[in-house]
Amino acid sequence: MVTMADVARRAGVSAATVSHVLNGTRPVLPGTRQAVLDAIDELGYTPNTLARSLVTSRTRSVGLAVRATGNPHFAEILQGVEGTALEHGYGLLIADPHDDPGHERTVVQLLHERRVDGMIIAPSPAPDALLGYLGQHEVPTVFLDRLVEAPAGSGFRHDQVCAENTAPMASLVTHLAERGHRRIGLVAGLPGLSTTAERITGYRHGLARAGLPYDERLVAHGDSRTEAAEAATHRLLSLGAPPGALVTADNAMTVGALRALRDRGLSVPDDLALCCFDDFSWADLFTPRLTVIAQPSKEIGATAVRLLLERLASPHRESRTVRLPSAFVHRTSCGCPSGVPRGEGPESESASPRKGPES
Fold it and tell me: Residue 51: in which H helix or E strand, if any?
């Protein structure tokens, strides 16, 4: 069996240098690092991860607990987490908490029992049991996409990363109002999530900016799921005075809203204007092309890994929350005759939106 000493002899370096290259424990000159990697390839050396973990108390693995199905946003987050973890020599163990507090607590404990070095988690709407477990066991943790507060006096320090939500959502509502719409509906996410609360706040800010009253009947919760969003859209369209424009608060719910509109034979934007929070790969393949807020999903995942590595290197440092900018992507589902290049928001566009009929 090829050993680390064999690699060191082939590369002409010490075994300690090979260890530093493998573990990233000390900077190594690029030429020396390449010589070690070449020797590893030539000899077919495979590090004994289990033995190394017994010595270092590290497994160089990260636990990721996020919704694994039904939302392209989380699929892109996964790509960002996995790619950045691999760049730093970390493997990934993945579990789906299903946004259920009890199941979330269970899968996080299972990941922890597999001796992952730290956790990256998109928390559920009621994460009390989760926070209790993580704090009790002092698990290095980063929350992504959704923000939570540690219990007062717990001493549990965690980091967080998410996109901006409030101002981008307000920009969608403002844009629709500038198109002449007066009844703008919202298909909101799962109650209890910080993203849901912030996007509702942004919706209300957008209405206020446009001088429009807030009407709670125009907000229906789609619970961040396609089927629930389809039902929520039907409820909004069944009002005595239904909305003439609609904003959906994530891409899974956008699909549900489009199904409801199709079932009713309604055309976008001729019968109802539509704007969406979250971009996804086929958003510009619909007819019409969807006007959206694009979150930096992959960068959210990548940033979460970087924050976790910082936490592992310095367990007692102060907690950090990182906010990443979202972008307004102007296409045609809002009722504008043509889209414009991506900008910071409607106010950055070179031409003012064309006014549409009041609805």
Answer: helix 49-56
Q: What does each C-alpha distance from 46 to 1, 4, 25 come to in angstroms?
A: 9, 9, 18
- Return the structure tokens found at 115: 């001796």
Note the pLDDT tens digit of each residue in 230-248.
999 999 999 999 999 999 9
CA–CA separation, 185 and 188 (whole Å): 9
Beta bridge partners of 160: 143, 321
Which residue has 């206020």 as its token pair?
A: 208
Closest CA to 80 of 69, 59, 95, 64: 64
Q: Which residues of 250-274 are buried (b: 16+ CB within 10 A; e: fewer)?
A: bbbbbbbbbbbbeeeebebbeebbb
Handedness of CA 291, 293, 296, 297 (dihedral sign): negative
Mean pLDDT of the region 315-339:
91
- What's CA 292's distance to the chain center, in Å? 16
Residue 343 near residue 330 (C-beta atoms within 8 A)? yes
* Contact (Cβ atoms closer than 8 angstroms) between residue 58 and residue 50: no
Q: Taking the model in full, what pTM does it have?
A: 0.80
Q: Which two tokens stand for residue 245?
A: 């424009």
> Exposed e or buried b for every residue in 126-142, given b needs 16+ CB within 10 A?
ebebbbebbbeeebbbb
Residue-wise pLDDT tens digits, 260-313:
999 999 999 999 999 999 998 777 777 789 999 999 999 999 999 999 999 999
Q: Cβ(359)–Cβ(348) under 8 Å? A: no
Can you read off the two tokens belonging to residue 145?
């996409």
